[in-house]
Amino acid sequence: MPKTAILAPVLLSVLLFTSGCAQWKWLQLPDRPFARISGPRIGKPAPELDGEDFDGKRVKLSDQRGKVVVVVFWSTNCPPCRKMIPHEREMVERLRDKPFTLISVNNDQDHDAARTMIAAERMTWTNVKTAGASDPINRRWRVEAWPSIYVIDQKGVLRSTHLRGADLERTVEALLAES
Predict the structure, then answer these.
(1) How many of the other CB atoms lie within 10 Å of CB of 120?
(2) pTM for the whole thing?
(3) Domain span holding position 35
């Protein structure tokens, strides 16, 4: 029997039954193309993000006009999200004197666990809390998996999605150079 015949069902099982960062909604393939039409679109104004941070302060994306904004949807039980935190911390520190801001949107229902990780990882930037995957912020942004990353220019226009590492850095630097 060919190895691919054995590996394919195993890989499919892992994909379907592993509790990773992806939300189960991503399995609904027929709905995905239509959901994207009404969600954030590159070249269009980013949806409003209106929530509360872990200190009870109101956070609105529209209050950040004039800045390049990176919005990261994440969860403490998402390994790729946790792996990104050191880079995010370095980027926030390096760009602190520039018109730049990072807004993380945490999707843990256990806010104490999120608060603990935010403190332990020295996440000094804004962290908005949600009620999890079904929160109105996630629905408005059509977040289907974590991490979901959006780069917004100074005018509030969505310019890029799902960039990480050096690609994210280059995009942010290019947008900062436009101002």
Answers:
(1) 9
(2) 0.80
(3) 20-178
Bond from prior residue into 147 cis (ω within 30 degrees of 0): yes
In a domain, 6, yes or no: no
User: For residue 12, is it within any domain?
Assistant: no
Q: pLDDT for 115-132, tens place per residue?
A: 999 999 999 999 999 988
**Are 103 and 72 in contact, with CB atoms under 8 Å apart?**
yes
Residue 135 lies in a domain: yes
User: Nearest 5°: CA angle at 149, between 82 and 153?
Assistant: 135
CA-CA distance, 163 to 149, in Å (whole number)?
Answer: 6
pLDDT, tens only, 45-97: 999 999 999 999 999 999 999 999 999 999 999 999 999 999 999 999 999 99
Q: How many structural domains compose the chain?
A: 1
CB 42 within 8 A of CB 158: yes
